[in-house]
Design goal:
Elements: E1 3-6, E2 9-10, H1 21-28, E3 37-44, E4 47-48, E5 67-74, H2 75-105, H3 109-136, H4 146-171, H5 174-203
Parallel strand pairs: 1-5
Antiparallel strand pairs: 1-2, 3-4, 3-5
Helix pairs in contact: 2-3, 2-5, 4-5
């Protein structure tokens, strides 16, 4: 590896150990230049790099890396960016939910359940990002804050709704499940999309 830069700052490549790209990135995140920051973009040998599958970076040997450039974000910036883009992410979940409901109502249980599993994984990712954002922006404190209280109440109601939905899936009550997803879950997601911008204002 000839050149290694983080946010335009040159890093001595020999200081960062690792036999492949994933190991290099993990070790690089312990470097003082990236303290308290997360990776936003990666440029490998002058080209944007993204993983097509998890841990694909393991298959990129160190010897094939000529230049490695990273753009990073502070945790606070990441959180604010998430709150701004979160409503659009929720919209994609709502679109997916519509397809799931249609599949259950048409009796295509296998396809519907596959869609639903992907939906739950995406929802879990959204909730994980939301938790990280609240921590990064200090939104756990001040429970008397109206926006924070609204979110706490929302998360409790979402947990109850998820429990109900998973129970219906286990019972294979597909029509009732479709009704709950269409009329209750969609409303729940729309409520979240309205809460996120308010949290963004609280985080400033």
């Amino acid at each position: 590896m000839e050149t290694l830069t983080v946010d335009g700052q040159n890093i001595v490549a020999s200081e960062i150990t690792g036999s492949n790209l994933e190991e290099i990135l993990l070790n690089l995140m312990d470097h003082p230049s990236t303290s308290g920051r997360i990776i936003k973009r990666i440029f490998l040998n002058g080209e944007p790099y993204t993983e097509d599958v998890p841990h694909a970076a393991l298959e990129v040997p160190r010897g094939t890396i000529g230049t490695l450039m990273l753009d990073t974000l502070t945790m606070e910036d990441m959180g604010l960016n998430f709150l701004k883009t979160g409503p659009a992410y929720v919209e994609t979940l709502l679109e997916a939910l519509t397809k799931i409901v249609e599949a259950f109502r048409l009796g295509d249980e296998q396809e519907a359940n596959e869609y639903f599993l992907n939906f739950l994984e995406a929802l879990h990712l959204l909730m994980t990002l939301l938790e990280q954002t609240r921590y990064a922006l200090g939104l756990w404190q001040g429970s008397d804050d109206e926006n924070n209280s609204n979110l706490n109440e929302y998360l409790e109601s979402l947990a109850e709704l998820l429990t109900s939905v998973l129970s219906l899936q286990e019972q294979k009550d597909w029509i009732y499940l479709a009704d709950v997803l269409e009329y209750e879950f969609q409303d729940s997601l729309r409520r979240l999309a309205a809460i996120l911008p308010a949290l963004c204002r609280s985080g400033h």
